Amino acid sequence: MLIYTINRLLQLIPVVFVLTVVVFGFVHALPGDLIDAMGGTESIDDPEVRAALEKELGLDQPIVVQYWLWLEKVVQGDFGNSLITRRPVATELLERIPATAYLAVVGIGLSLLIAIPLGTIAAVRRNSITDYTAQITSLIGISIPEFWFAILSILVFSLYFNLLPSSGYVGPGEDFGLSIWYLILPAVAIGFRQAAYTTRLTRSSMLDEIGKDYVITHRSLGLSERKVIYKYTLRNALIPTITISGLQFANLLGGTVVLETIFSWPGIGLTIYQAIQLRDYPVIQAGILFLGFMVVIINLLVDLLYRVLNPRVGTGT
Amino acid sequence: MSNVRNNWANGLNRREFLAASAAAGVMAAGMPATARAMPKRGGTLRFATRVDGSGLDLHRSLAYYVSNPLAGITQGLLDIDQKMNIVPGVAEEWEVSKDLMRYTFRLRKGVEYHDGADVDAESVKWNFERILDPAIGFAFTRSSLLDVDRMEVDSKHIIHIHLKRPSAVFAGNVVYYPVNLMSPASVDQADTNPVGCGPFKYVSWKRYAKTELVRFENYFETGEDGKPLPYLDAIEGYPKRDDSVRLTSLRSGEVDLIENMSYFDVPDFRRDYADRFNTWDVAQVGGAHFNINAKSGPFAMDAPDGKLLRQAVAHAIDRQAIHEAVFNGLSEATHSYYTSASPWHMPDVKPGPEYDPEKSRFILRKLNMENMPIAVVARTEFQYMRNGGEILHAMLMDAGFGATNEVFDNPALRAKYSKDDWGIDSTATSYRFEPDGWYSRWIHSQGDEGKLRVGFKNERCDQLIEEAKLTLDNNLRKEMYTEVDSIVNDEAALICHHGVPLTTAGVNSLKGYAPAIAGPYSWSGGGIRTAHFDDAA
Q1: Pair B204, B217: CB distance under 8 Å
Q2: Which of B66, B140, B207 to mutate to probe the A interface, most A CBs <10 Å?
Q3: What tens digit of pLDDT does each residue of A197-236 get?
Q4: Per residue in B261-300, pLDDT tens?
Q5: Which residues are within 8 A (CB) of A253 and not within 5 positions of it... i.e. 6 or more apart?
Q6: pTM of the prediction?
């Protein structure tokens, strides 16, 4: 397991390197001049100003040099300063990442809490009322766009019943109780839709597993149905669920710009989107690099979890 | 209905407004002091805005005057009143030399920065020098001071500003937006803890999440109770970029005040929620215009049929349709930059070609240019620009052009301007308070924006704009600008079509508040400076 983990970690190095090249290349290929973008709606035509800004921002260097200088700093954990706010990029992103992570963790957690029991019960009680209810509910969840569900939730819970805040964010470190208050609607909006996908996936995986020989063997050995289902079958059925949930989690870390806009949630997705609009290169680069890195890490964690669930994975057997 | 609209929006002229104000003053003076309720001090205003600040350094960043939650921490050397007149502020008097080459500002004594330092002549000089540093000053801010040649501190409270060239309009360039004063001693923390001299002090800023400001206890302006303004203890700013999200926050009681309401929400909101909320209109915070690419291509000033083709475009534009479809009937159609709400409105401007799509088709047929391709572009960030582009596209198609319509973010659009890769730009501008900022930058052939985004050239216009800049009498200036706008309309290179209005809404308990063109924070004797809560409401 240790060697497997080290191998996987070593494989990350070229992946992350390629990621830096792609991110840097992508950002510098965006249409529009950075200095023009810094002027907002005003022209920066004064050559003296342009020259001063180009020098300050290192734009007077060849692109390869710019990349190398950036990479050198990134390796040392220095992502530079935002071109717009002049604050360190790390500060800019660190203000956002907790909000995004908080929402993603709770959203995914909520979806798994709903989906795994519901999908399992639906499979075990196939063609029963419970199964039909689970299938219809998940179909509705998949069919309803997230933003529509979010708006509907706001309408009902914020405007009609005045139970929950319609938008905004309070960090768990500031006031945990209040933070939960603000979290409920966005987390439910995310969790409901993700749960819909995951319920269907869990149900179909369970159905596949239930029909397999080892389950019949376990039953014939006289093991209780509960033990057969929850100890042996569910464990194997969870592999695709974990894969998909891992990807969903990575996607959520990337931010959900629409939901962040609806709930005024100061997440990383909206930050990167706005940085792109302002051509704030250091923030875009660091933000996308962070997200790419997180996808790679989550994939690694998912792979390691496979090994826990099924030790044959990665051994060649 | 409890809508509170400012006097411009109600269409009062200056004389009517003064008469009404005088009558109100007489009535107030005649009332016993006990009968007049003093504004109650205290309370935190939760204010949801469309945009957030782009940075804390008051010289490097632009504090967009309409909706930046950070705007309360600073102000300029002079102030603006609700009618957009330049009035005393930090400087209580100013005078200009006969040759228009020197401005002298006498600073009010006792004005302080939030760190307790005096706002004195040396600090003003330091501020202007820092803004003029090309590596520091934000382009918009710096450009307002480019006429400064040198500054001379006469005494602690008197500063002379010598200009490179004569100007009658310089005072308008040292008001809040763009010029903001900060404490020289705070320069090292300008990006993290700005220290200005405005009515509120900085506490914290989490970008796109929350801004916290508290009352500056030594602010120089005083309220009705003779104590320093503002009445409010604190402001919490919540940037919420989506119009409906801001409105929902207001309706659900999470904020007390929102700005920039969607034009399409305003009528229903007024009808359904008048018992709980007030709304305020500012008739114009900027102007919407279509810029035709007169720099190059078929519409160019020097193209053989350029003028005729531009006029064909002008004939295709139905202002009434734009009025309904883009502004939901809330704006005012114009033929120049300023609506009737503005003191710079010029009723004698000759309109350009009238709406007559048949004439457009005739011109295109005559020139054998039917279905002539034309790229309509707009910025993605502002709905009225996008909607303006969409409806213009439809009108051009109807008039026989082969138009396309695309939206871009600002940097991409500016790249298109630079490459002349566009036909007509549906855009808008929120102007500097001094109209020279509009005419010199957009209409003058050497103006930065004109050169980049219009390409209009006319010697007579250049001459009039330069003369206006040297004229202290505003009525004379208006005559000059009237002629300029009449020429621009005839040439149809830049077609002003509507003022851009602004509607703000707030809880009924918020009193003493009214927005102005100068924004919610920075106008003398009003806005958030005089806002207070009345729990009985």
Answers
A1: no
A2: B207
A3: 999 999 999 999 998 899 989 888 888 888 898 888 998 8
A4: 999 999 999 999 999 999 998 888 889 999 999 999 999 9
A5: A100, A101, A104, A268, A291, A294, A295, A298
A6: 0.85
Q: Quick check: helix, strand or coil at residue A252?
A: helix
In whole angstroms, give the CA distance from residue A10 to residue B276: 62
Alpha-carbon span B372 to B397, nearest angstrom? 10
The encoded tokens of residue B335 equal: 């033929």
Out of B249, B253, B412, name the one closest to residue A31 (CB).
B412
Length of chain B as a residue count: 537
Mutate which of B208, B417, B442 to test chain A, going by most A C-beta atoms within 10 A? B208
Q: Do residue A165 and residue B254 have CB atoms under 8 angstroms apart? A: yes
Residues of B in contact with A57 (CB under 8 A): none
- Do B252 and A162 lie within an 8 Å CB cutoff? yes
Write down the residue that tokens 């497997």 correspond to: A4
Flag whether residue B135 sits within 8 Å of chain A, measured between CB atoms: yes
CB contact set of B72 (below 8 Å; sequence gap of 6+): B198, B199, B200, B213, B235, B521, B528
Cis upstream peptide for A165 (omega within 30°)? no
Find the range with the poorest average confidence among A78-87, A109-118, B451-460. A78-87
- pLDDT at residue B64, rounded to an integer: 63
pLDDT higher than 70, residue B1? no
Separation CA B432–CA B526 (nearest Å): 19
- B207 interaction partners in chain A (CB closer than 8 Å): 85, 92, 95, 266, 271
Mean of the per-residue pLDDT values of chain B: 89
Q: How many CA atoms lie within 13 A of B244 on its CB side?
A: 11
Facing residue for B245 by CB, picked from A49, A53, A262: A262
Region for residue A86 given its phi and psi (left: phi exceeds 0; alpha: psi -120 to 50; beta: otherwise): left
* β-strand pairing of B494-507 with B44-49: unpaired
C-alpha angle B300-B304-B308 in degrees, rounded to nearest 5 = 75
The whole-angstrom distance between residue A85's C-alpha and the CA centroid of its chain comes to 26
Residue of B nearest to A30 (CA): B412
